[in-house]
Design goal:
Layout: H1 12-23, H2 28-49, E1 59-60, E2 63-64, H3 66-70, H4 72-91, H5 96-110, H6 115-124, H7 132-157, H8 166-186, H9 189-192, H10 198-201, H11 207-211, H12 213-232, H13 240-251
Antiparallel strand pairs: 1-2
Length: 255
């Protein structure tokens, strides 16, 4: 089947979950609960990321952010509810072994060693001029952890070893955040669907801030090659093509 890996991160995580399951020889239907859970967690993270106490943005995907439309308290509760519903969806599956593994991977990916920890470090680094290694560590936790977990949950749904998907997932996660950094500096608000130029204004930890635009684009090109090399180690058969298309798309991403 064909996978629509949408630009800007929209619905990529559930698509990757289903893709990994099928690439591992499983049925995509068996991975649907995990795919839904990944999208719920991603949506919750965006709602909270846009809050005034964090990135304080008024636009998301070209529309008013949740706290702007419905109020800050409702936005907080909506994010909380989505996170709980994600774990409820995973727990409702019949295979207890699959549930245990998927819940553990998801919790690790979005907790203090993953997405939440990455967000905290990202906020603390504002105005501090971190080194490139620190910026990449933030990218790996804030963005890469959930993307990697999406792939690993798909592999678990297919009853396969999820570990081979780690290198590819981390490379894709870094590419997403790197391309976001570059787009924030080069694209318009209309193109992004969110406020452009906020990273520089807030002195955020970005590869553009550390390296400058030209060197940041070179780093993205090298990360594309890293992701393509990781694809070859997966032995994904007919799914190799779409797995390779994603890093190439991210390397040339314009919105």
């Amino acid at each position: 089947m064909e996978y629509a890996l949408c630009s800007g991160g929209k619905r990529v995580r559930p698509a990757l979950c289903l893709l990994a399951a099928e690439a591992c020889g499983g049925a995509r239907e068996d991975a649907l609960p995990a795919a839904l859970a990944c999208e719920m967690v991603h949506a919750y993270s965006l709602i909270h990321d846009d809050l005034p106490c964090m990135d304080d943005d008024v636009l998301r995907r070209g529309r008013p952010t949740t706290h702007v439309q419905f109020g800050e308290a409702t936005a907080v509760l909506a994010g909380d509810a989505l996170q709980a519903l994600a774990f409820q969806t995973l727990a409702a599956q019949k295979d207890a072994e699959v549930v245990a593994k998927q819940v553990a991977f998801m919790a690790a990916a979005i907790g203090p060693a993953g997405m939440v920890g990455g967000q905290q470090t990202d906020m603390e680094s504002e105005g501090c001029h971190p080194a490139l290694e620190e910026v990449l560590a933030i990218h790996s936790a804030k963005t890469g952890a959930l993307i990697t977990a999406s792939l690993m949950l798909g592999a678990v749904a297919a009853h396969r070893n999820p570990q081979p998907w780690q290198d590819y997932g981390q490379a894709i996660g870094r590419l997403f955040q790197m391309s976001d950094d570059i787009l924030d500096a080069t694209a318009s608000t209309a193109e992004l669907g969110k406020t452009a130029g906020k990273d520089e204004a807030a002195e955020k930890a970005t590869i553009v801030g550390v390296l400058g635009l030209a060197a940041a684009q070179e780093l993205v090109a090298s990360e594309v090659e890293r992701a393509l090399a990781a694809v070859q180690s997966l032995a994904a058969g007919p799914f190799t093509s779409v797995l390779s298309d994603l890093p190439r798309f991210l390397g040339a991403r314009r919105s």
